[in-house]
Write a structure and sequence with these properties.
Blueprint: E1 2-6, H1 10-22, E2 26-30, H2 33-43, E3 47-51, H3 59-68, E4 75-79, H4 84-92, E5 97-100, H5 105-117, E6 126-129, E7 132-135, E8 140-143, E9 146-147, H6 152-162, H7 171-179, H8 189-201, E10 206-211, E11 215-220
Parallel strand pairs: 1-2, 1-3, 3-4, 4-5
Antiparallel strand pairs: 6-7, 7-8, 8-9, 10-11
Helix pairs in contact: 2-3, 6-8
Length: 223
Amino acid sequence: MRVVLIEDNAILARALVQALEADGHGVDWLGDGVEADSFLAQNGADLAVVDVDLPRLSGLEILRALRARGQSFPVLILTAQGQVSDRVTGLDAGADDYLVKPFEMAELRARIRALSRRPAEARLGIEAIGALRYDRATRSLQAGDAALPLARRELALFEAFIDNPGRVLSKDQLGERIYGTGADIDSNAVELLVSRLRRKLDGHGLTIRTLRGLGYIMQLDQS
């Protein structure tokens, strides 16, 4: 999942980036409100974590602007203001959740996991893909009665494909989803990751096809 983090406290932001990347997410970090609003307008996000007090444009103004643009991805607001009225203001502006500073990193990670599951709730959280079952709640992949373990970046790649069924995804799109927009990615990193995931999916009813010059697509095996 690609998370956009908007936080001007560099020490906190670096800790959040480290924690989210350890969970397998690609993270884009911005510390200025105007730049963050422009970035979201152009690039969107799978989920955004937005501080309220930001230079030039507040987190609530960013939130109202992205909702006005019709961007519906989940937003978690961070703030030092813990009054009920402040939480109500944030939720009314379009936030999906609200976390008051200081907070435990484990709680923020749990809330992000909960928000990332919401689009899948209509699918009961478990999806059948080929001969596999994927549980979004636990981010686990099952082949029959056995788990099919994936490394965290392999899991992020797998999620990118199942979130875009039937779509061809370019190397750049996959790289942004896994590592974050504008990340310095080795030219072979995505290819190697696709190759590793392809080998693990072999024999489970799924194939990752390479479309030269276009990118990759995950499809059910033809029988």
